[in-house]
């Protein structure tokens, strides 16, 4: 007999929660793809959100620091403008990792597409 969802949590809330988990790993892939050209954090945040990759600053900035520490990004302060900004760009190793993640992504999309076909 199938179990029902706990009454205090709606299907919509569970779907939203699971969708957030699903998206979490895609932010790294999106950052490595977008940072082929230097961008500062807030511009990157807006680009991601405009593209439908919803992330907030409390998630993005620690992620950028972690990717830099791992050697996948480089950063440089631009102090030419009135407000100093830290620009991030993918490193050579980050480009290689990004290309590998893109291949993995395409393989995963193909696999999930096969698994979720209606006429299985």
From TrEMBL:
InterPro entries: Metal_resp_DNA-bind_regulator, Tscrpt_reg_PadR_N, WH-like_DNA-bd_sf, WH_DNA-bd_sf. Residues 33-95 form the Transcription regulator PadR N-terminal domain. It comes from the Bacteria. SUPFAM superfamilies: Winged helix' DNA-binding domain. Signal peptide: none annotated. It holds the Pfam family PadR. This is Transcription regulator PadR N-terminal domain-containing protein.
